Amino acid sequence: MREQEIIHYLKLLGEELEELQLQSPVRLLMIGGAYMITQFGSRVFTEDIDVLVYLDRNTEEYRRFKNALRFIASDVQESQKWLSDTMGDFMQEVGKIPRGQLWLQHGMLEVYVPEPQYVLVLKILSARAKDADDIQTLFRHLKTRKWKQVENLLKKYVSRDILEDEEFAGNIQRVFDAFFGSGPGL
Amino acid sequence: MGLYSLQTMKLSFEQICEGQDPWIPLGKFMHDWYELQRDCREKLLADPLPATYPQEFQQWAAFCAASVRWFCSTYEMQCPSWVDNPEYVLPEPWCMDKLSLSWESEQKTTAPEFIQHNIYCGNRVYTNKYERDERGLPLRSHPVDLQERRAVVRRAGERLARYWAEEDRLLQEYLPTALALRAAARERKLAMQ
Prior knowledge:
Number of helices of chain A: 9
Structural class of chain A: alpha/beta
Oligomer: heterodimer
Helix content of chain B: 40-55%
Strand order of the largest sheet of chain B: 1-2
């Protein structure tokens, strides 16, 4: 999906939610590739839109929301995973989730975006090869020069449990080494 | 946009050769593998890569072949013979992880299925948002050791299957209501026009 498609599909979702008679707007917090494309223009494509949905999974509203996603996928002949809320659980486990700023409002949908510091923290915790370019973009945007700045962000957004997890700690170390240690640098 | 088709490894490679960021088609492949086409995984791997492709994509061709080998052994499936074609073994080692700690660590953390193709990509190249550990957190890596890896993904697969079954059930149960609401809304719109 390109930026135009991301916006178009989200607007369709807002309209679809209106048709399904949601009583109040569904609120999303957008992260991942769609965030990088729409907020930074640092990429052209993403395979899906990653969001946190502020709906309880056991409610009727959530079922309407999920059905709306399927209707849109069918209408525009797109993958059923065009929007994914799978990362929502993980975000809640990580720690403090920022409120975000309203970025798009249409029909019964409100899409918020978090501050880039938060997205950077999620990317550092994932630290997959494919995250390297996004991490570099965010470091540059945030003028991150010292590892201490990164540590402060990690402390701000990430729970102690996660920081103490051996594998997450390993991921953080990888980012440190790649950008501040003997790696490629900024 | 077009009709959504099966995101096979072959299609993924073709899209890489068309200039797409490799992790877009490979990400779609993972969506199909772990969710949308999880009941017909063989089809995602069966087709060989195109016989000819630009030489500049040789590393990605080898990576796609190695990936098929890795998915088959990890998820205990029969591996298609096309991946054994020697052209998918790189003449020089390829260290593809920009976040690798060091060459030594990359060698230690890369599964033999990739090393067989002279690719060093660490043990996180196919980590994904679907497979979870017992705490519900996404797997941070796939073990290098095959038996250990299989045990980890089996447990994650069982958790995932339960999750999908419950989500599908809830959605299917609600589908008639959602369709009725949608139809009513559209009728109202038409009447107003």
